[in-house]
Amino acid sequence: MENVIEIARPENKVYARSKLLTDKVMHYCPGCSHGTIHKIVAEVIDEMNIGERTIGISPVGCAVMAYDYIDIDWQQAAHGRAPALATATKRLYPDKYVFVYQGDGDLASIGMGEIMHTCNRGENITVIFVNNAIYGMTGGQMAPTTLEGMKTSTSPEGRSAPETGFPMRVTEIVALFPGVIYAARHSVDTPAAVRKTKRAIAKAFKSQELKRGTSFIEIVSTCSSGWKMTPVEANKWMREHMFPVFPPGEIKLMIND
């Protein structure tokens, strides 16, 4: 009994579930990266003690139900329009921490104009961009980030660059704008990668205190269902095929830790 009591003492606790995560069972497919990303976003907000001051913007797509899992204030935007809604929200409530949570089909396709102009204006928000190179919710169609030769429901023979273009490297594009003060790309496929991604998200939220521009965090992710792979196969495929095109790391850093 003494050993049980010793283990239960607070000073021996090495991890505690974020109090901002709700008890709702996540609906994502097995192996989906969204659940891990939700977890670390909640942890960052919780550890910064800004839950009452944070507003998240969720769009259309697999990320649409994010408000069910993280207990903060949320707004839902039309497909691709999350950056516009975040712009209005941040300008109305400049002391709030405002972030958008978007997939690649949402941000890089129908929402490409929105994110480009938001970053060009240097809106003081955080962008979390989940890139799994496919439309996950709507049927596995080709996305702007789909790799060359990658098979999808709308490119069954594989994406052909002469016909549909090359995979779009959005983080490198937005990093060119003077209004972007921080741009990074990470993943959540290993514990070490999760720690790096969490540090990047924390840095992006803290950058809002500087009021100097936009922070953009891309998270290269898997879509086991859309890719027609097991979670283990999807992580291996992502490392072998996506990382060479979307290499992890900090791309632009104009802020200090």
The residue ranges in which pLDDT falls below 50 over 5 or more consecutive positions are none
CATH superfamily: Thiamin diphosphate (ThDP)-binding fold, Pyr/PP domains
Strand adjacency order, main sheet: 2-1-3-4-6-5-7
- Rg result: 18 Å
Characterize the biggest β-sheet. 7 strands, mixed
Task: Give the CA-CA distance, first to last residue.
Answer: 44 Å
CATH architecture: 3-Layer(aba) Sandwich
- Helix/strand/pairing category: alpha/beta
What's the order of the H and E elements? HHEEHEHHEHHEHEHHE
Give the number of domains: 1
Mean pLDDT reading: 92
Query: How much of the residues is beta strand, in percent?
Result: 15-25%
Shape estimate: globular
Q: Please report the total strand number as a whole number.
A: 7
Q: In CATH, what is the class?
A: Alpha Beta
Characterization of the model:
- With 257 residues, the protein is α/β, with parallel strands linked by helices.
- The chain has a single domain (27-253), classed as Thiamin diphosphate (ThDP)-binding fold, Pyr/PP domains (Rossmann fold).
- It is 37% helix and 16% strand.
- It contains ten helices and seven strands.
- A seven-stranded mixed sheet has the order 2-1-3-4-6-5-7, with helices on both faces.
- Strand 5 (180-187), helix 8 and strand 6 form a beta-alpha-beta unit.
- The longest helix is centred in the C-terminal third of the chain and has 17 residues, at 191-207.
